[in-house]
Amino acid sequence: MTLKQVKVTLNNSGVIVEPGALYFQKGNITCDANIGGVGGLAKKMIKNKLTNESAFNPLYKGTGEVFLEPSFSHFIVVSLDNGSIIVDKGIFYCAESSLEVGVASQKNISAGLFGGEGWFQTKISGTGTCILESPVPMSEILKYNLDNERLQVDGNFALLRSDSVKFSVERSGKGIAGKLTSGEGLLQTFEGTGTVWLAPTQPVYGSIGASGVSSLAAAPYNRNNPA
């Protein structure tokens, strides 16, 4: 485990960051509350209530360097070219001001009730670069490019997906017999064409954080997966 720190170099440009993340800055840089008028204020308050993300992300703009707080977390850099991604709750860290950070609603009842993310997630759209705070190192993230395909996951460790990928929750087997023979319950299902990023080792880090290294003596599979 090593400390990491995000440094952003601005050249007459701007960066949106999580509140409280600024460590220090150098240069001709100003901070804007980034409210966006009455309409923008309403949207940000709704986003805060729906996704548990911060309502107001300060915008630092100008020319110079912005250093964010050191952390033992892992940071991943994602570049968008007129695209949209939907990310796990709480992992947005900062983004170029050319990107819009908003809200995406689940498209079906199963995803909202059993998907583990609630009815709303954070959506990042536009052209530019954003940085996400990952629970696992970049080397442990699996990137799958789906081409009109289906990907099913037993657990809540998908970090992000393209907005074009449909998300739902399905039973692993049809009927009682299928459930008994498979030993599984519900599967997160991703369908369509686009990208899905998975962090399969995330449950292990969760076990360490909750119970210490001794908790890894047994395999951390979910023995209480809901039906």
Q: Could you walk me through the main structural features you see in this protein, from its secondary elements to its overall organization?
A:
There is one protein chain. The protein is an alpha+beta fold. Helix content is 17%, strand content 48%. It is globular, with a radius of gyration of 19 Å.
Give me a quick take on this structure.
With 227 residues, the chain is α+β, with helices and mostly antiparallel strands. 17% of the residues lie in helices and 48% in strands.
Label this structure with key terms.
227 residues; alpha+beta; 4 helices; disordered C terminus
Number of strands: 11
Strand coverage percent? over 45%
**Poorly predicted ranges:** 36-42, 110-115, 176-183, 223-227
Question: What order do the SSEs take from the amino end to the carboxyl end, as H and E?
Answer: EEHEEEEHEEEEHEH
Please state the structural category. alpha+beta
Query: What is the averaged pLDDT score?
Result: 79
Count of alpha and pi helical runs: 4
Major β-sheet profile: 11 strands, antiparallel
What would the principal axes of the Cα set say about the shape? Answer: globular
Cα radius of gyration in angstroms: 19 Å
Helical content stands at: 10-25%
Distance between the termini: 37 Å
List the helices and strands and how they pair.
Elements: E1 7-17, E2 22-32, H1 37-51, E3 59-68, E4 74-87, E5 92-96, E6 99-105, H2 109-114, E7 120-134, E8 142-153, E9 158-162, E10 166-171, H3 175-182, E11 186-198, H4 202-211
Antiparallel strand pairs: 1-3, 1-5, 2-3, 4-7, 4-9, 5-7, 6-7, 8-11, 9-11, 10-11
